[in-house]
Amino acid sequence: YLITGDTGAGKSTIFDAICFALYGEASGPNRETGMLRSKYAADDVPTEVQLRFSHSGREYLIKRNPEYMRAAKRNSSKSSSGLTKQPADAELHMPDGEVITKVGNVTAAVERILGVNKDQFSQISMLAQGDFLKLLLADTKSRMEIFRELFKTQKYMSLQKTLDNEQKKVYVLVEDGKKSVAQFIAGIQADSDDVLSIDVEKAKSGELTTEDVVELLDKLNDKDKIIRNSLDMELDRISHDLESVNAALGAAEALFKTTESLTAAENRLKAEEPKIGDLENMFISASDQLKDKSDLEKKSAKLEAELINYDQADRLESEIISLQKNIDLQKKTLDKSDKEQADRKIELEKLRQERESVKDTSAEIEKLKTALQKIMDEADNIKELSDYLAEYSQDQDRLKAAREDYIQKDAVFNDLKKIYDAKEQAFRDGQAGILAEKLKDGEACPVCGSTHHPVLAHRPDHVPTEKELDSASKELERARAEREKSAANAGSLSKVLETRKSQLIKQSTKLINTDDPDIIPEKLTELKNDCKTRYSNTTKALKTEQTGENRKNELEKLIPSLEQEIEEENIKTEKLRESMAADDSLLKEKTSNIETLRSSLQFADRKSAISEKNRLDELAKEIQQQYDLADKTLKEQKITVEKLKAEINSYRSTIASSKPCDIEVERARQQELNIAQKDCIDKSKAVASRLRTNEDIRQNIITRSKDIMGLEKKLQWMRALSDTANGKLAGKDKIMLETYIQMTYFDRIINRANIRLMTMSSGQYELTRMKEASNFKNQSGLDLGVIDHYNGSERSVKTLSGGESFMASLSLALGLSDEVQSSAGGISIDTMFVDEGFGSLDPESLDQAYKALAGLTEGNRLVGIISHVADLKERIDKQILVTKNKSGGSVIDLKL
């Protein structure tokens, strides 16, 4: 069947409606669901679609609507002229009577029933205008992306990337291993005098293999081990000789020092021994003074015993001062309390007299409150009427602006209507002129059939193109829509104003007894002023009465509270007088006690007594210290003399038993051996360090070499695998693993496509996948060519003409549709839509394309074609005619 009609009438919208009903989306990628609501629809007209379809012998019904703005309901809290959002919704009626609701649930159910999602459905059934040409002319890279989504080959692309990343990681490890081995070789050490140092330099410059380097290290280490053993033996001999020399020198130096020490000890004995007599005299004098120490200690003990009496006197003095202060404070408190009590009694009498003068005002207060409430209710009614009046005025202004907007938009529409009518007439005249230029006498006119053409139409100088006419039509339709929208808005505001006026009159009649809107403001102002005055006067009177009532309640609380306060203060004052009398008696008693105590003490206060005691203790301590010092000094001097005598005897015995030695000769020998020992140790350390370093380097090189060899083998096969999967093999076609998998699907699509293309092209053209790439740089494997059986050539599909490209792309799209159905699990969808493109075909090609599409309808398959081509209108009887309405929108006429 054929879908035909005016340009822009909405033929493709039929496809959009079917696809939206099934999946909630439009058929084309450039149309969103928000565009599906017609601009010509009134605010209260719903936007929805109902689709009844059969699948596998069962019938289903879908109802779905997009999200859009509709008129608010009359009982809404908003204005009747406002808009509200209508949320998207859907429902699916199943053959068994079950109803599935909600957008997501319905879409999921459709995908489950048909077995395909929206994208697959579009590839199988919705062959949109120009979309299938993209697949025909795409390169390998673009087709990879298309097939990746259709045939789910992402996992192969992921495998390619994984292999490439893994081989890169191993490559980095190999390079790092080589660098580390080179670092180890750079650290090899050798004696500069050793002939092997020449080979060491070769190794560091990279001239030796790893195996040669290991062998060189073995030679260096063997030689250093021999040198190290020889140095160890030489060091042992030097150490033995040095021990003998050190022993001889030690004995000689000890004899010399002993002789010097004997002379020094004898000299010290002569000086220290006479001191003993003087120290003995000092000791006897200090012993005689010990008897004075005993008298001083007795006096100090007596003063120590009397200190407690000084403490008691000080304590009594402090208590007397505290009692006196407390008595003075109590006296001041009593004086203050007596004065305050007198003031309280005067205040109490005043309050009692005030209470007698205050009258009861509760009844008057209630009366004023009732009057005030009535005034407030009246004020609320006045405000409500004032609000109605303000809204009425605003609605008048809005209606005036809306009417002015309509007048302006109507003028714009009329101007554009004149322009469009002129262009349309010029276009029709031009078409008649073009047709007249092709007429020949004796040939039938395609319009009237006459073979005589006495008066031919003339083509005007300037004829607008169909595109210019279409553009003018769209501009006119936009102006028409804006004018109608403005008119609807003005009409809606007029209704709102009438409703508002009715409400205003009803309220004003009840409140100020008038139905004339013009005098309402003046009456309303008078009523407001009167209400305001009465409210102010009543509020002041109420406040005055409430103030008196509050004072009376306050006095009822203050008087008992003050009476109780006076009573409590009397009790407190009496207790205070009793306490002050007791403290005064105690003060007199303590004053008598302290006078008696102080008369018995030697000193005026404790400080003087302690000062005297400390003086006596210091004198006694000084006597004891002089005695102890004399005793200690005498004993130490006697010990010193005895030690000197013992040292002299020891030195004389050591000198008698020692042997003589030439110290200078032995010291020269010691110096030679020390130099030899240090040189031997330095050499031994250098050899040991060099040996340790080279042994570590040898072990590290061997270990790293083993790791690198394994990694290099792994890198070799991983790189080959990655290059193969990613199409990077040198000198071969750049075919990746994912492309290789897709080639199988592509071959199937091409085989299915060629069945149609051979029919459409009368056997001239056959699609083929190009087996060889144009070069070894670009990715290949999905490049498409065409075989021309008329001349036996094979070339790129990009060389086909417009009509040939249309046939080839349509065939490819049909083949893709078949393959997608097959790869989707053998899903069968017996509906297909083809949008435009037939205008580029010559009559013969059009006939072949029609036959190929007609072949699809064998069985139960339904094929819908959008086209303006007149030949198709004659061939296809079943038609859907879409026609524009000049007043806006389009209508459908079914010709079945």
In short:
The protein is an alpha/beta fold.
Task: Walk me through the structure.
This protein has 896 residues and is an alpha/beta fold. The protein is 69% helix and 8% strand. The protein contains 19 helices and 15 strands. The protein has helices at residues 11-23, 103-114, 118-124, 131-137, 140-151, 154-186, 197-204, 210-272, 275-288, 290-357, 362-438, 466-512, 520-599, 606-657, 663-725, 737-760, 802-823, 843-856, 870-875; strands at residues 2-5, 49-55, 58-65, 68-71, 83-86, 89-93, 99-101, 126-127, 765-769, 784-788, 793-796, 831-835, 862-866, 879-884, 890-895. The strands form 4 sheets. It has a 6-stranded mixed β-sheet, with helices on both faces. Strands 2-3-6-7 form a 4-stranded antiparallel β-sheet, with helices on one face. The protein has a 3-stranded antiparallel β-sheet with strand order 9-10-11. Strand 10 (784-788) and strand 11 (793-796) form a beta hairpin. Helix 11 packs antiparallel against helix 12 (466-512) and helix 11 (362-438) packs across helix 13.
